[in-house]
Design goal:
The structure holds 2 protein chains of 2 kinds. By secondary structure, chain A is mainly α. Chain A has 2 domains: 266 residues, MetI-like (MetI-like fold), CATH 1.10.3720; 224 residues, MetI-like fold, CATH 1.10.3720.10. In chain B, the strands form 2 sheets. Chain B has a 6-stranded mixed beta sheet, sandwiched between helices. A 5-stranded antiparallel beta sheet of chain B has the order 2-1-4-5-6, covered by helices on one side. In chain B, strand 5 and strand 6 form a beta hairpin. The chains are: A mainly alpha, B alpha/beta. The interface between A and B is medium-sized, with 27 and 35 residues.
Chain lengths: 515, 246
């Protein structure tokens, strides 16, 4: 992450960055507009995600767990896919669309709603995970004296504030970086404008980089918010102790709550179902002609990148959980790479690797792997840090005291002890790599386009049913991975998983929110 | 067995001192019980001995080897040939009793052919032969304590450190394990530092008792020598003995 930035800042004689583009008014107006859009998306995600989180985690709303799983699905796919789904429903020629609905969809408001519904599950999931881990005695003590709304406002929400802040940072970062959905919906955003400077005929990476500097400042601010709001609790946000208490009985509000919960869930999965509907049999039948090696191009680099990310996590996670200074700094860099626009990393990587002597990297899928590792390393590092925080440091100390060196402690204690977290980190890193569009689209080698990029490039000119079928394949691929992860998480723990030292709770599901 | 020596050791975390100018010698084959109120630095002393924390000032020696000095860990924990019974035991939940012992034996380089014999002997000594395949989650409190003790002793370390190992047990188990420890220490002529806040345990196990307060050693000696100490904390601690009738 830092190296590409340094290369771009230093520049060569011919390509020294000129700050002229930033002296114009337009970039600043566009930045203000993008920040306003981000704020609006954030408001929508909080308005949907917080009540959903409360309902699924702390109440007896019927079907809440299934609702949570279904509601979460869109956050694991590129936002372009739900945008396409809504288009197939509400576009001018959509299933239930017309001029008015298309006008609404292809507007700022449409973009806010599409992105808001896609990212709301991030808030829901993080809030729910945090609520599951609030010590029930806090809530019970309040129940003696206060009514439920007051308990929510004064006890539960303040208790999960770090998780809410974390969710807000992730949503803001993803919205700021998003390229596919705004471009498709014809909404001008800063990241899309920068992407145009890189993807168009007038390729100007130095200018694109200069244009990205203000967004880098915003990313730094987001990283600072994350640090400040969460601070030392960073890895305990999702709770170190899985306390459980009986869900709050909603009484006569149970069914209205269910209607809200399932309506939101319906809104979440409708665009994904619409993709399958639009593809129809024809789309899937024509798929072999269009899909090429896209699935393979997605899976192989994602798997390599996920493995490298997990390896980084296994090394840095335990150190980070102990607040090692060097690991904390590296974590900050990894966080910055995640919250900064993908284009920034993309431009930097191109500046470094697009040289004749490194063509063996830049012209192969290795460059995609490098980009993924740079952007999503934080997934592995944070997941393993959460897991290690859940076991006492003495578990590792004991190994060292009894003669085991670093590698032996890693192989004999850390890895077997946290295999679920490692598996979880691998799956989530894989999902992040699969859903990536904005970094991979900038430097995928010829003929090696991943599936998300293939959908993006075909969307303008390809046959609609085929584009919808490709998008459906992306959704199914992601769901299959997540199903595998859920299956692994549900595996019956062995007797020894129940530790003597400290009750180790089913930590796996909590790693989804490690970011 | 080896001599452990702490020369003017200080340790602080930021502006908070944990140990201040502490000096103590544990002779080879001697058991020193370290006694003191909560927060007086007993556990910090052990962590410095193990190399898990570096002393801010001062030197830690094992025989003629400098282990740590003035902010530096000179010999890493895994090379010190010390063993520890941790306060909350720190057993590895994914390993069976036998695997615990095998892991530490292979970590210190004991050849495989010798491991089996040592494991069997150790398990017999702590009476865990029947529980060799069990994992920590399947053991009772007393059995877990025995595993922690077996793990500490099976490698025949230069010295063993014990951090309030019996503090969470009931009286009957405590007596039983005190007997076991006493027997093992005598049989192996162990150099040991036994940290406790219970004067009865200190008297039962320690050849000498070091009384700590506010990060330093305020008195050290055999129990009879301590009886004459003018130090108020020592007198207060000895009152516990009077109550227990020892």
């Amino acid at each position: 992450m830092l190296w590409p930035l340094f290369v771009l800042l230093a520049g060569s004689d011919e390509a020294a960055p000129s700050f002229a583009p930033l002296r114009a008014v337009e970039p600043w107006l566009l930045l203000a507009r993008t920040l306003a859009l981000t704020a609006a998306v954030l408001a929508v995600t909080l308005a949907i995600g917080l009540p959903m989180g409360l309902l699924v985690a702390r109440t007896d709303t019927p079907g809440r767990r299934i609702a949570l799983v279904a509601h979460a699905a869109p956050m694991f796919v590129p936002p372009l896919l739900p945008a396409l789904g809504w288009f197939y429903l509400f576009g001018r020629n959509g299933l239930i669309g017309g001029e008015a609905s298309a006008g609404l969809l292809f507007s700022d408001l449409g973009a806010v709603l599409v992105l808001g519904l896609t990212f709301a599950p991030i808030v829901t999931s993080l809030a729910a995970l945090a609520l599951w881990n609030v010590d029930p005695s806090q809530e019970e003590a309040a129940r003696v004296v206060a009514r439920p709304p007051r308990i929510v406002a004064r006890i539960l929400l303040p208790a999960i504030l770090p998780a809410i802040a974390l969710a807000a940072v992730v949503v803001a970062a993803l919205t700021l970086s998003e390229v596919g959905a705004p471009m498709f919906l014809r909404v001008r955003t800063y990241a899309a404008a920068v992407f145009a400077r890189l993807g168009g005929v007038d390729f100007a990476p130095a200018e694109a980089f200069v244009l990205l500097l203000p967004v880098l400042v915003v990313a730094l601010a987001l990283a600072a918010v994350e640090r400040r709001s969460i601070g030392r609790r960073s890895f305990a946000v999702l709770g170190l102790r899985s306390f459980r208490s009986a869900p709050f009985a909603l009484g006569r509000w149970r069914w209205p709550a269910a209607v809200f919960c399932w309506s939101v869930t319906g809104l979440s999965i409708t665009p994904l179902l619409a993709l399958g509907w639009r593809a129809g049999l024809r789309g899937f039948a024509d798929l072999p002609l269009w899909i090429g090696g896209a699935v393979w191009n997605s899976l192989v680099p994602a798997a390599w990148a996920a493995s490298a990310i997990v390896a980084l996590g296994v090394v840095l996670g335990p150190l980070l959980s102990r607040r090692d200074r060097a690991a904390t700094r590296l974590d900050l860099v990894a966080l910055l790479a995640f919250v900064a626009p993908g284009a920034l990393l993309g431009v930097g990587l191109a500046a470094i690797w697009n040289q004749p002597e490194t063509a063996w990297v830049y012209q192969t899928s290795a460059i995609i792997v490098l980009g993924f590792v740079g952007r999503y390393a934080v997934v592995g590092v944070r997941t393993l840090a959460v897991a290690c925080t859940q076991t006492p440091a003495q578990i590792e100390d004991a190994a060292r005291v009894f003669g085991a060196g670093y590698l032996r402690t890693l192989a004999g204690i850390v890895v077997p002890l946290h295999w679920r977290a490692i598996l979880g980190a691998w799956v989530f890193a894989m999902v992040f790599c699969l859903r990536d569009l904005e970094t991979a689209v900038l430097y995928y080698p010829p003929g090696r386009a991943p599936l998300a990029v293939r959908v993006f490039t075909l969307e303008a000119n390809g046959p609609e049913p085929v584009v919808a079928a490709l998008a459906s394949v992306q959704v199914l691929l992601t769901l299959a991975l997540l199903g595998f992860a859920l299956g692994a998480a549900a595996m019956r723990p062995r007797a020894h998983d129940d530790t003597s030292v400290r009750q180790r709770q089913p930590e796996f599901r909590e790693h989804a929110g490690a970011l | 067995m080896t001599t452990l020596r702490f020369d003017n050791v200080s340790l602080s975390f930021g502006s908070t001192p944990a140990l201040s100018d502490l000096s103590l010698v544990v002779e080879s084959g001697e058991v020193v019980a370290v006694l003191g109120p909560s927060g007086c630095g007993k556990t910090s002393l052990l962590r410095v001995a193990l190399g898990l924390d570096a002393p801010t000032r001062g030197t830690v020696w094992a025989g003629a080897t400098r282990l740590s000095a003035d902010g530096q860990v000179l010999v890493p924990p895994e090379r010190r040939r010390l063993a520890m019974v941790f306060q909350d035991l720190a057993l590895w939940p994914h390993l069976s009793v036998e695997a615990h012992l095998r892991f530490v034996l292979s970590s210190v380089g004991v050849p495989k052919r010798d491991q089996e014999e040592r494991i069997i002997r150790m398990l017999e000594q702590v009476e865990l032969q029947e529980r060799a395949a069990a994992h920590p989650g399947e053991l009772s409190g007393g059995e877990r304590q025995r595993v922690a003790i077996a793990r500490a002793l099976v490698t025949e370390p230069a010295a063993v450190l014990l951090d309030e190992p019996l503090s969470n047990l009931d009286l009957r188990l405590r007596r039983e394990l005190l007997g076991l420890l006493k027997g093992l220490f005598a049989q192996r002529r162990m150099t040991a530092v036994y940290v406790t806040h219970d004067i009865r345990e200190a008297v039962a196990l320690g050849d000498r008792i070091a009384v700590m307060n506010a990060g330093g050693v305020v008195a050290v000696g055999a129990i009879d020598a301590l009886r004459g100490s003018p130090e108020p904390l020592v007198r207060e601690l000895l009152e516990g003995l009077t109550w227990s009738g020892l």
